[in-house]
Specification:
The chain is an all-alpha fold and 129 residues long. It contains five helices and no strands. The chain has helices at residues 6-10, 30-33, 37-60, 68-92, 107-127. Helix 3 runs antiparallel to helix 4 and helix 4 (68-92) packs antiparallel against helix 5 (107-127). The mean pLDDT is 94.
């Protein structure tokens, strides 16, 4: 979905300088690839999500010789990496747009935050089982 509804995900990438200048995450190679800052972060997180999920499923079903714990740990780190986008949605009431339904403010964002904590705890449990 990061690729098929790119504009929706680009809309929730915190712009540089957000939160009083605290948010200054680089986008190395974005210019070489011809990508805007928000596109760069949308695409790399989409690729990481796809391949991380593929790695977790493949290792979970023993299709490849890879530790499930490492795969789930990597996905947990990815969830941590995208947490600022969810925080940005809450603090700035950012709208994804397109065909994605509006998230009611503030309770929809609170639910999204709880869902993210549950996801983090699941990856934590899989990583340190």
């Amino acid at each position: 979905s990061h690729f098929t509804v790119k504009e929706a995900f680009c809309a929730i990438v915190p712009p540089k300088g957000t939160w009083g200048g605290l948010w200054n995450v680089p986008a190395p190679g974005a210019e070489v690839l011809g990508l805007e800052y928000d596109e760069y972060h949308t695409f790399w997180t989409g690729l990481a999500e796809f391949f991380g999920g593929l790695l977790l499923i493949s290792s979970g079903y023993s299709l490849i010789d890879f530790d499930v714990e490492i795969a789930s740990g990597l996905l947990g780190l990815l969830v941590l990496a995208v947490t600022p986008a969810n925080i940005y949605m809450f603090t700035h009431d950012a709208v994804m747009g397109g065909d994605i339904p509006l998230i009611p403010y503030p309770w929809g964002h609170c639910f999204r935050g709880v869902a993210q904590m549950v996801l983090l705890s699941l990856f934590w449990e899989l990583t340190f089982q």
